[in-house]
Amino acid sequence: MSDGSAWQGGPVTDTVEIVLCNNPGPMSLDGTNTYLLFGSQDRAVVVDPGPYDEEHLAAVHDAVTARGASVALTLLTHHHDDHAGGVDRWVEVTGSPVRGAGRGAAFAHGEVLDEQGLGIVVLLTPGHTADSVSFLLPQQNLLLTGDTVLGRGTTVVAFPDGDLGDYLDSLDRLRTAIAGHGGTVALAPAHGPTHPDADAVIAYYQRHRGERLDQVRAALGQIDPRHADAADAVVNVVYADVPEQVRPAAYATVRATLDYLSR
């Protein structure tokens, strides 16, 4: 787990490892975390192989083979390029079947993927995108959240593909899954460091999103109703201090919020 130093990925448990992609940025934070889940028969499940980056894909493949393993299955948490952009090349290299982001059989909520005895529980968590999923690893007390919950900061609701109502429901769904598991579950996000208590992070996300809803409601009372772009006007009030490079994310999230409030 992260100790507050620069995030570099690496081992999470004895059988779970992160290979960090060198694609840092305002949205991807330190880069994309590609997860390697090692099963019982020298076979691995890979989650989010990442963007089309030959160096990263080679590093992921090397990390698998270093354990004397091959790839049994590749899972995608959603379709964004920093998670799935390299999947076609990854399949060329590994021959792995793929599920998620419109590939392979559609996921069902609560479905158990018992590949290599890992017992991966699928949780449908739309909101960041319509196709976002998370994966609970009960044996490892670990929750892989993709971009639904990050290791640092908060995520974007990528409207119109993303939906705030769905997102709020997904946060509830994650906490319900954790409660049903019993005990503390660690957070394993697609960007940023891991965290020892996923439920605490998700509870913070819920509080934060509630605060943002209140701020947007208040901002709507301050802006000129003749403003051609209400979302832009709200961003200027609620997200006035955000860096310019993340303003598009703030704008998308505000559009999602206005859509939610209009129902």
TrEMBL record:
GO term, biological process aspect, one: antibiotic catabolic process
Stored Pfam families: Lactamase_B, WHD_BLACT
Protein keywords: Hydrolase, Metal-binding, Zinc
GO MF annotation terms: beta-lactamase activity; zinc ion binding
Database matches in CDD domains: metallo-hydrolase-like_MBL-fold
Keyword Hydrolase: yes
Superkingdom in the source lineage: Bacteria
Cofactor(s) in the UniProt record: Zn(2+)
Protein name according to UniProt: Glyoxylase, beta-lactamase superfamily II
Organism: Branchiibius hedensis
